Amino acid sequence: MTGSPVRIAIFALLLLSVPACGGLGGTASAGYTQMSLSGDIALAPTSGGVSLGTIRQDVESALGLDDASGSPYVRGDVNAAIVTFTASAFQYDQSGTGTLTANFGNISAGTQVRSDVELWNLQGAALFELLNIGPVRLAPGIGVNYFTGDIDVSSLTGPSITENVSVDAPIPLLFGEGEVKLGNLRGIVDVGWISGEYGDVDGTYLDLAGTVRMEIAAHLEVFAGYRWLEADLKGTVDGQAFQGDLVLQGWFLGGSLRF
């Protein structure tokens, strides 16, 4: 997607520099993540008249997206009194070949296809400290999970057809974060969820992340965790009806500097 690497680089620099602002505390984190895509998807032809439930197909085998995708991962946390602002970003970029088990848009079942997916995820949230007693901290909040990118599926046999699904989806979420601290270790769980209708799309979205952080020196931490993003959606894109139950999941690790 043209311009996305520039935007993600600028976003990363902002994440890493904001905590250094005077009067604020925070954490700047950078690392690596490896994510895999699974689930099923359906795209109606331009002529319509098809029940999407009859043409759902697996993205790993039918579209050939069965390999994991690695990407840099950045996150910034800024603490201001009882409010914490968080933002993070990563990319999913994968290609593969498969054989359709059902029609996909205007591409017929049984066609060999090449799939190219490039997605960028930017997440931001404001968390309000509700409880901070001893080693336990709880903070509910609100935020947004923003996906942008393209999904291209092109026929390798038969008529030359390419189906493109452009993704540009800011998803508002209810957030919550819980933390337990034991010595130099911190265990953190982040949860984001929403269900409803937004523009031409409706469904349910869930974002779960578990992280273990260990302080190895003053102001310096290492971390590792796992993230699960699940979307059960239906709607229209470029005039074509679609439906999908997709999961993007994988591990992440890196280091953090605390201010």
Quickly list its features.
mainly beta; ten-stranded antiparallel β-barrel; elongated
User: How many strands in all?
Assistant: 12
Write down the CATH topology. Lipocalin
The averaged pLDDT comes out at 90
Number of domains: 1
Our Rg estimate from Cα atoms comes to: 20 Å
Question: CATH H-level name... which superfamily?
Answer: OMPT-like
Quaternary structure classification: single chain
Describe the overall structure:
By secondary structure, this protein is mostly beta strands. It has a single domain (about 5-259), classed as OMPT-like (Lipocalin), CATH 2.40.128.90. About 5% of the residues lie in helices and about 70% in strands. It has 1 helix and 12 strands. The chain has a 10-stranded antiparallel beta barrel with strand order 1-3-4-5-7-8-9-10-11-12. The chain is elongated, with a radius of gyration of 20 Å. About 30% of the residues are buried. The model has no long low-confidence stretch (mean pLDDT about 90).
Summarize the helices and strands and which ones pair or pack.
Layout: H1 4-17, E1 25-43, E2 57-58, E3 69-80, E4 83-99, E5 112-128, E6 131-133, E7 136-155, E8 162-182, E9 185-198, E10 201-217, E11 220-237, E12 240-258
Antiparallel strand pairs: 1-2, 1-3, 1-12, 3-4, 4-5, 5-7, 6-7, 7-8, 8-9, 9-10, 10-11, 11-12
